[in-house]
Amino acid sequence: MAEFLTDLKTLRDRARQEIDKGPVTEAYGADRERVVQVCNEALATEIVCTLRYKRHFYTATGIHAESVAAEFLEHAQEEQQHADMLAERIVQLGGEPDFSPDTLTTRAHAEYDASLDLVEMIKEDLVAERVAIMSYTEIVQWIGDGDPTTKRIFERILEQEEEHADDLRGLLERLPSDLKTQT
């Protein structure tokens, strides 16, 4: 049976090399620059989603708005947590998180929405969640085993995006049918 670990002296010597790279060692198996770029695109997506949910939270009106708005606020807070996780990982990989408002919507996978109709808000948020689910599923598959930490981050975010989509679908199902046909 082959040895599992490199001898400790060799590991320590390797750890001292390129110490300025922090957690990125020669064992890192992905294209670091491309991973940072993909993380920045996801960061833009999460920021746009946060802003969309916040707008919907503040502008939701009508008899059913209170419970729906509460869901929007919860999702906005979770999207912000996703953005924070991605920004932190970008820095760990030696990159710079791109928070530039000038290019935010062009880099984001999801779109911003300014709907004022409650049903349209829910539908647009559900579409955005589905876009994120498809994008992040592809990213997880693309990363593979090359960067297990970034892969786990995307898997955690993906899990929560799926929960958001399920929540939104449930909101649509619970709304009275006459409200759904007005849009």
TrEMBL record:
<dbReference type="InterPro" id="IPR009078">
    <property type="entry name" value="Ferritin-like_SF"/>
</dbReference>
<dbReference type="InterPro" id="IPR014490">
    <property type="entry name" value="Dps-like"/>
</dbReference>
<keyword id="KW-0409">Iron storage</keyword>
<dbReference type="Pfam" id="PF00210">
    <property type="entry name" value="Ferritin"/>
</dbReference>
<dbReference type="InterPro" id="IPR009040">
    <property type="entry name" value="Ferritin-like_diiron"/>
</dbReference>
<dbReference type="InterPro" id="IPR008331">
    <property type="entry name" value="Ferritin_DPS_dom"/>
</dbReference>
<protein>
    <submittedName>
        <fullName>Bacterioferritin</fullName>
    </submittedName>
</protein>
<feature type="domain" description="Ferritin-like diiron">
    <location>
        <begin position="29"/>
        <end position="179"/>
    </location>
</feature>
<dbReference type="InterPro" id="IPR012347">
    <property type="entry name" value="Ferritin-like"/>
</dbReference>
<keyword id="KW-0408">Iron</keyword>
